[in-house]
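Section 4.2 – Deliverable D4.2 (structural model, holo form)

The reporting period included a commitment to supply a predicted holo structure for the target in complex with 4'-deoxy-4'-aminopyridoxal-5'-phosphate. Inputs used:
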Amino acid sequence: MGLQGTTTSEWFNRGRDALVDGVSSGFRYWGDNDTLVIDRGEGAYVFDMDGNRYIDYQLGFGPVILGHGEPTVASAVAEAALAGTTFAMTSAREIEAAEKVKAAVGYVDALRFTNTGTEATMHALRLARAYTGRELFVKFEGAYHGAHDYVLFTTAGSPLDALGSRRSPVPFQVSSGVPEAIRSLVRTVPYNDLEAMERLLRDEGHRISSLLIEPMLGNCFGLMPEAGYLEGLRLLCDEYGVLLIFDEVKTGFRMALGGAQEVFGVTADLGTFAKSMGNGFPVAAVGGKQDVMDAWAQGGVTQAGTYSGNGVAVAAASATIGLLATGEPLARVAAVGSALMDGIDKICADRGVAVQVIGHPSMIGVFFGDEAPSDFRDTAKHDEELYSAVIMGMIGRGVMPVDDGLEPWFTSAAHSDEDVALTLQAFDESLGEALG
Ligand code: PMP
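Output (structure tokens):
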């Protein structure tokens, strides 16, 4: 018996005849008996086809910061849909949304919209290569930046024994079908290791276009940067003429209105945004400093997209940013996240379980281990078996953290105090059960 009830199972089997494995994104396939089919979302909850309610901390892997079906965003989207969405020309709605992004994120002088985070990082990397005239880029071990060929190296979940030494890391290719030639353009380094970055730039800085970094690892427990790390990267980038790209697809409009750069006070040259910018609608952007963005204006560097800036997407962005800019939703996210973090800490202390509750109240990592991890290699010290047992216990009790052992839990402004209490109760009971 898996997670599927009778009706959900029927829908999954029907879905499997049309969609490969019954899903539209590989990460959603949890196995033949555990892959859920969702009927609807409402605030902090999702409901499966059997009517089972789950308090949702996946939130679509992050975007749904205001809760599912938030009415202001839904109305703005409905209005935009009725006005036509795709014109092969700029719309007023698009300009208004761009102004809102600019106002929210300090270092964005100019931007262009895309539809997904994958497109945004793909375009940011090309822009960086074109701007610097250099072909290589650096990515950080354990980080995910989308599904295009350049970034499918050493993402979270890569086998730790395939990464080579810390001194001389080997980029691990996580998918078949990525051309072998691409590997020669990627350099991987451990996160939070300034010396490793310095060594790499000393050796190859003149060939490196950019560092593509999630300022906190929103795809790997929500690992946080150690004091001085991001500042150190900024200085190194300046010294070697390398662009610093913050991938704020998860952190943007979630950690704070101005994203990670507002929280950490470090300014990137380019940023990529998506997820919480549109509360679940497919809208993303690449933005940054004027002289870098001008590389697009000067021509010769391709950026295009039929649906980029479409009416529905930008209406969702404007409405979402408008609400976030009031400060209330993110204050609620912080309160919910802090209560969960404190509660999990206390439950584990009471039960004598070593835990490190890491990350940020908007993106929480629960790491079962004696010491706080500082990079992806440290995830070897996480008790994944215990974690997995606890998560499955919670899902069985109607609470849905991300089932993937390395993905943080996302909080929303729609979670109530009662949801937090139920979540902590489910965590406590599931932990007790897992410990036996
Ligand atoms: N960058 C980061 C940091 C992400 O977390 C993700 C998605 N999880 C992406 C890029 C890719 O975004 P999308 O799934 O919208 O293509």
